[in-house]
Amino acid sequence: MNQNQILFDRASKTSPGGVNSPVRAFRSVGGTPRFIKRAQDAYFWDENDVRYIDYIGSWGPIIVGHAHPNVVKAVQEAAAKGLGFGTPTRAEVEMAELLCDMLPSLEQVRLVSSGTEATMSAIRLARGFTGRDVLVKFEGCYHGHSDSLLVKAGSGLLTLGNPSSAGVPVAVSKDTLVLPYNDVDALKTLFKDKGDTLAAVILEPIAGNMNFVRARPEFMRTLRELCTEYGTVLIIDEVMTGFRVGEQCAQGVYGVQADLTTLGKVIGGGMPVAAFGGRADIMAHMAPLGGVYQAGTLSGNPVAVAAGLATLNIVRQDGFFDNLRQKTTALLAGFSAAAHDAGVPFSTEMEGGMFGLFFSNQAPQSYAEVMASRVDLFPAFFHAMLDEGVYLAPSAFEAGFMSAAHTDEDIASTIAAARKAFAAISH
Ligand code: PLP
């Protein structure tokens, strides 16, 4: 009996589409979602007891590998002391200090429970701080599912073929302007015309929700300069890239500092922790000090924060990212050689422990270029990999994630699987 199928049939009766987050439903690749029952290191096992080498890592957080003993111990110890108090705790202070220490642009942070809350709150803060309404985002960037951000977004919306959501009032979306990613001229023109009405610009510095598209350095530099010149708050959304692409997140990679940064995923180590923070003069506008309201029953939850602290304490060890980069580099070199030998158009991108695989001869630099790649080849490739015990994100528009727990053998078997998968789709 196929337990995945049995569970999916049951789930589909009581949950829309049988899932609690759309991309999990395998809609764009077809087939039955795998129901995972346990995970360890670089692997997880489905309800049929089939093992997979995991390259989604819970969509980014699991950077030290599944069920790392330090993280599990920290969670168990915290849980034994109580699951939540709704009061300040020592662990939250330690977490805030650690984040401000690790990322130079953070002078103050507030902890929340999801990336969506972090971006939504950062935008409210930017509007409250500037007294302006208009928000600028970029095509194909996903910043969570709050109303004003579900306009030409990426991730699940792209996977389902519709980058904007029903149910978002026109009145809300009219204050969100969308520009093409990496288009310096469009940026300059917009600021020239409307710069002093713009509350904030939000971007994914490496867009992982339309596969993997990195901002050009000139684009980042121009954005920083224009935001400073016009008093617009630059929000760098590092929910995915934060402590995933390098020691100081994408801001370290580019040498550009945000006014506000949003974090999530890795900082919770698999548990619901996210944060927004940045310049102290902006953060001073948050309640209870200032007039911008934001709150959360579970914000800074002690068990979740314990998982995050334990994870970050591993991530900040010397050599962590060198090791991770080597693993990602080796994986991608193997993929590229395999695709080349099979005659499949293919390119890759990576930074730290995050990577993109494209069915195109050159890595895309914009949403339009991503859409022009052979995304039609992805479903067969995905299933061929799955049949070989390798779990990639079930969408051509999502980044992949390496963890410190992936061994050389795991990488070699993934490449061997890719050889078979490329050969299968090249016929
Ligand atoms: N921002 C970015 C860049 C993301 O990748 C995501 C989620 O994938 C979010 C925000 C939303 O985070 P969450 O799913 O925790 O609400």
Overview of the structural elements:
The structure is a single chain. The protein has 427 residues and is α/β, with parallel strands linked by helices. It has two domains: 3-67 and 318-426, Aspartate Aminotransferase, domain 1 (Alpha-Beta Complex); 69-315, Aspartate Aminotransferase, domain 2 (3-Layer(aba) Sandwich), CATH 3.40.640. It is built from 15 helices and 16 strands. A hairpin with a 2-residue loop joins strand 13 (347-351) and strand 14 (354-358). It is globular, with a radius of gyration of 21 Å. The two termini are 32 Å apart. The structure holds pyridoxal-5'-phosphate. Residues 59, 114-116, 119, 142-144, 155, 204, 208-209, 237, 239-240, 264, 274 line the site of pyridoxal-5'-phosphate (PLP). Pyridoxal-5'-phosphate binds at residues 59, 114-116, 119, 142-144, 155, 204, 208-209, 237, 239-240, 264, 274.
Question: What is the topological layout?
Answer:
Elements lengths: L2 H12 L21 E5 L2 E4 L4 E4 L14 H12 L9 H13 L5 E5 L2 H16 L3 E5 L17 H4 L10 H4 L2 E4 L4 H11 L3 E6 L2 E2 L5 E2 L2 H14 L2 E6 L10 H6 L5 E4 L10 E5 L1 H4 L18 H14 L4 H23 L4 E5 L2 E5 L8 H6 L5 H10 L2 E2 L8 E2 L6 H19 L1
Parallel strand pairs: 3-15, 5-6, 5-7, 7-10, 10-11
Antiparallel strand pairs: 1-2, 2-3, 4-12, 8-9, 11-12, 13-14, 14-16
Bound molecules: pyridoxal-5'-phosphate (PLP).
Pyridoxal-5'-phosphate binds next to helix 4.
Pathway: Porphyrin-containing compound metabolism; protoporphyrin-IX biosynthesis; 5-aminolevulinate from L-glutamyl-tRNA(Glu): step 2/2
GO molecular function: glutamate-1-semialdehyde 2,1-aminomutase activity; pyridoxal phosphate binding; transaminase activity
EC number: 5.4.3.8
